Each structure stands twice: as structure tokens, then as C-alpha cells.
Amino acid sequence: MSVNQSAVRDLKNIKDFIRWTYSRFLKADLFYGHGTDNAWDEAVHLVLRSLKLPLDFERSMLDCALTTDEKKRILKLVHLRISKRQPLPYLLGEAWFMGLPFKVTHDTLIPRSPIMGLLENEFQPWLPYSPTTILDMCTGSGCLGIVASLVFEDAQVDITDISSSALEVAKENILFHQVEDRVNAIESDMFANLADKKYDLIICNPPYVDADDYNSAPREFHNEPQLALTSGDDGLDFTRNFLTKVAEHLTDNGICVYEVGNTEVALQENYPDVPFMWVELPAGGNGVFVLTKEQLSKFHF
């Protein structure tokens, strides 16, 4: 009898499947970094969400029995998570960002940007006014731009990506969160299709992973679109180009909030005279800087 046949026969309820999935994940030595950071939370998330149950599902209901079809669905996802190292959000078709669900596919990066913490604080103290025009470049699933539209309800938001497939997913998320009157999806290679548009706030989580980091990354990351992750040997190809153009697309008091992750060191070495304002991130981590229009205009990148 196969493992799956045995599980269908022996495991009865939600609690059984969470415990079994947890044990399987521990044995598989998976990498966690796409919404959870440990085997237990990943097991709970997989089982509950595969059953379309909320993550705060009433504990007293964990003894509910599962149908054979429900059991098989869970077992299939567990198998794919372990054998293919598929990140859980791709298996479920959804990721959570700032407490909100977003559709994701293999065409989009899985939302996890630490810029989330700055959105929660409305980019204070770097943005002393409420922006009326916002750009979310390299938007992927659209999560940063859509959340920005919910935080700044009077703003018009453009979200852009070079990937038409990613933008199709973003458009679905725009409709799901009912912000289609304030969020516009534009296919664009950086600023190419934005003409003379200017913004009070530009947010960008671009590809920035260098070649060494990408090649040594866990298999889970290699299931994400490489286009959204890598940018040349040192990870700075996109950033160098961006810095030459961004000032002309900011309003006079505008700011740019930009993520470079571990490539922070290489960026500072390349531009030692630029006064990058590195943000202390609420949830920890590094690699997000702020630059104003005034600061950007002083340098010839």
C-alpha cells in the first residue's frame, strides 16, 4: 500500500492531516520563506487553505472528518510541496500581504516585500503629505500598488511590469479588491510607456538578486520567475538604469522607495557619494532606501 493510500485510510480529520503534514515537512527539510517560516505554520496553512477554511478556524472544529476527495487534495499538495519544492502560495494560488489575499501564479513573484512595513506607517517620516499620484514599478501580483491605493484612498495609482502575464494576474487582484477606479495596470519596460508622467511616490521592488545568491538559493526560489529576481552578475543592472531616469518622473516634493535586499552593499560601493537613506524596517531586515527628487537631481548616475 502506498503512503497516500495509507493516509487516505488512516487519517480521518483536519487535526490528523495537520499533524501528518507537519511530520512529513520536518522529514523533508524544506525551506520556508514564502509566507511562513517553520514547518508547523506551513502545515496548518496548507491544510486549512486547501479546504478553503480561514487561518483562524475554530480549534474545536479541528476534529471534523474529511471526505475522500478532500484528503486526496491535501495529499497531492503535500507531495508537490516536497517533491517539486513548490512554494506553498503557488500550490494554493494565493498569498497574503498586509492581511489581504492576492492571487499568485508562477508568472508573479510571491509577495513578501519589507516595504509592507513602511506602507503600514504611510511612509512616515519620509512622506510628509498624502500623495495623490503613486507608481508601483515591477508590480508582479500588484500587491504593493493595490495596498497603497487602500492606504492612500485619494491617490491614483499606476502599477507597471514588463511581464504581460504578471499584469494579467495583477488586473485580477485589482478587480478582487475593488480598486479599479483608482489603480491602472500598464505594461512597461521601466519608464518606457509612462511618457511624461510624474508621481509623488514611486515604489519599486525590482529584480536585484546577484548571480551567486541566485545560484546558491534554495530550490523554492528557482520556482519563481527569474525575470523578477535576477539583474546581472552583481544584481544592479536594473537599478543602474532606474537611477538615471527616476528623477524626471517625480514631482518636486516626490520620493522614491526602493528595495535592493542584500545588494545594498554592492549599491553603496558603486555609488559612494549618493546619500541613500536606509530604512530601519519594522519587521527587521535591510535593503530598502529612500531618495527624494531633490537628492536624485543632484547626481549624474
Map the helices and strands.
Blueprint: H1 3-10, H2 14-28, H3 39-50, H4 68-83, H5 88-92, E1 94-97, E2 100-103, H6 115-120, E3 133-137, H7 143-151, E4 156-161, H8 164-176, E5 183-187, E6 199-204, H9 211-216, H10 237-245, E7 250-259, H11 264-270, E8 277-278, E9 288-292, H12 293-297
Parallel strand pairs: 3-4, 3-6, 4-5, 6-7
Antiparallel strand pairs: 1-2, 7-9, 8-9
Helix pairs in contact: 2-3, 2-4
Architecture overview:
By secondary structure, the chain is of the alpha/beta class. The chain folds into 2 domains: 3-92, no CATH class; 99-297, Rossmann fold, CATH 3.40.50. It has helices at 3-10, 14-28, 39-50, 68-83, 88-92, 115-120, 143-151, 164-176, 211-216, 237-245, 264-270, 293-297; strands spanning 94-97, 100-103, 133-137, 156-161, 183-187, 199-204, 250-259, 277-278, 288-292. The chain has a 7-stranded mixed β-sheet with strand order 5-4-3-6-7-9-8. β3 (133-137), α7 (143-151) and β4 form a beta-alpha-beta unit.
